[in-house]
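Hypothesis: this fold can be encoded by more than one sequence.
Test: take the structure tokens below, design a sequence, compare later.
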């Protein structure tokens, strides 16, 4: 695509840095470059072809599709180069680097091979943001760039501790539909947690810093992305005070909570009785 404001911002910083270092007596490459791979290229080509899924790409031919992606990169790299020249950037425009080059890709594969031979690459399990439409995981950059404040319901949930009458772990989530698969609550072994007693006698455990923490206070004060009609978010302390008050009975470390067991919100479901996953014990937490 043609340059966006974020391209101009990044290239301006790079240009200023290069000029400063050059005037300071350093030898520089003055090399401009293009990020040629990823969803930002593939999705645009799919739009041009009218594709709706990755199966359309397979029917079309992966090699043909890849070549179209490369042609798009070549087309818009020329456009961005001309735009950069017009902005007065000081670069070696005839020798830009491209991440899709054979030299770059073979170097990466060589490096990965070396890591594999040294036993530094392993297959594991992780949670990643996934695109059902594109059939791939999202990169951190793709997630961050699309971040914006939206108004929707969130919930506080209490998990009943086993063998502790009327005592609960207090958790907060913006994705309550994930509670059906909940299997663990994480704690920071070095963090302070409060044992709080509500007016009805219920005991709650949660991070001490969250008691008076004002969520999204900066965004509310700046009003840059704040949604009209949404009030300032309440602290947990405010919520308990509105329900009659509270007493902090004790402050303990997260390490003291390791090994506690609780009753999950959907432990009575049949599916929860089926063992699964890859259980392990972290010896550092024992």
């Amino acid at each position: 695509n043609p340059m966006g404001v974020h391209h101009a911002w990044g290239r301006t910083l790079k240009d200023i840095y290069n000029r400063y270092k050059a005037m300071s007596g350093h030898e520089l490459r003055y090399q401009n470059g293009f990020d040629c791979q990823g969803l930002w290229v593939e999705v645009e080509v799919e739009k041009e072809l009218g594709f709706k899924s990755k199966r359309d790409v397979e029917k079309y031919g992966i090699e043909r599709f890849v070549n179209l992606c490369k042609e798009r990169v070549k087309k818009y790299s020329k456009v961005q180069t001309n735009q950069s020249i017009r902005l007065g950037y000081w670069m070696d425009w005839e020798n830009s680097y491209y991440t899709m080059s054979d030299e770059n890709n073979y170097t990466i594969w060589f490096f990965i091979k070396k890591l594999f031979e040294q036993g530094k690459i392993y297959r594991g399990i992780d949670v990643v943001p996934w695109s059902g439409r594109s059939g791939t995981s999202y990169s951190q950059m793709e997630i961050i760039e699309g971040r914006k404040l939206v108004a929707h319901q969130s919930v506080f949930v209490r998990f009943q501790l086993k063998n502790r009458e009327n005592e609960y772990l207090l958790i907060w989530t913006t994705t309550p539909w994930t509670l059906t698969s909940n299997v663990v609550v994480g704690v920071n072994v070095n963090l302070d947690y409060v044992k709080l007693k509500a007016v009805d006698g219920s005991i709650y455990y949660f991070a001490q810093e969250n008691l008076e923490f004002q969520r999204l206070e900066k965004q509310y004060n700046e009003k840059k992305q704040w949604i009209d009609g949404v009030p300032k978010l309440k602290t947990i302390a405010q919520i308990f005070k509105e329900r009659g008050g509270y007493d902090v009975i004790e402050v303990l470390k997260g390490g003291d909570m390791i090994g506690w067991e609780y009753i999950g919100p959907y432990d009575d479901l049949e599916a929860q009785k089926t063992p699964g996953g890859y259980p392990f014990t972290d010896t550092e937490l024992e």
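The beta strands are 33-34, 97-98, 130-131, 136-137, 155-161, 167-173, 192-198, 203-207, 246-253, 262-263. Helices lie at 5-23, 39-49, 54-60, 62-86, 102-117, 140-145, 217-222, 236-242.
Hypothesis status: open.
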